[in-house]
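Fold it.
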Amino acid sequence: MLPNLRQRMLIGIVSSLVMLTAFTADSQERRPEASGQVDIASGPAPDGEVVAKQSLRLDHETGVRAIAFRPDGKLLVTGTVDRKLHGFELPSGKEVFVLDGQQGPISSVAFSPDGTTLASGGDRTTVRLWDVASRKETHALEGHISRVTTVAFSPDGSTLATSNFDRTVKLWEVATGKELLRIEGHEARVFPVVWLPDGKSLVTGSFDNTIRIWDVKTGKERRSIEGHRDGIWALAVSPDGKSIVSASHDDTIRIWEVATGKELRVLKGHEGAVSAVALSPDGATIASGGFDRTVRLWNATDGRLLETLRVHRDVVGRVAFSPDGRTLASGSNEGAFILWSIERK
């Protein structure tokens, strides 16, 4: 048994508006622990196509709800329930800073494309921008009226998109912190927000069970995509911008064509809601995390399950690939932050 077991509580699910960001954990202080044995169950893919090996595990004092790699791959930041941003030097895993400026649990973090600015948002209404070099707050973005669920920089780094419990998305000018646009249309809380690579469109997912594509200049809806039977927790966009991957409370991952909204594939395997999804930088591999406490790897082309990683003890709320695609990070409500080495055979 671990030296300091933590009591955890999973807040009850209230209809289809269940919130991963509402999970809380009461924790005793723990020191980073050595890696344990990893149970890897292979899927139907040929042996050796993709191999994931646990390379580092660090245990936070409270649940990990946000993960972001700096674009150069040398720094990783996690956001936790206890309102802290933890910076880790890679590949050593050495913790190099802790920032405590958010007023509530942190649900999302993102680096600007040039790696100089960090954005964070969480269970309070304020979004904060940080200078990475000095680790000082540069702007506090005020305007949302309830919890912030996602922060996402535009491809050119000039604009930040944020989503919220109030069913809206806001666009902000990064240089000044000025609010540029308010986007409305979803009929329930908005969770994931991702940019298409051209920087002209945003993709959002909501617990109204829809995915929507928006024109960022006008705020007008370009397309509404339906097919999920429950709320959408996470989104990822392919590097070429032609497809969207969605993770839902209906236990599925779905792949959609951006141009038409056509459903291309349904990935099934998680034994519960799928709360996290990421695409490798080359677009070849999908990583997912779920309420079943697993991390799963999928072939993005044909949807085959490649591996199932069973090591987390609670909901896996975040997964993220490193910029070079050789490392996968996963974060869980138990407080574990794990790095996986990804090898292709």
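Residues 146 and 319 are 25 Å apart (CA to CA).
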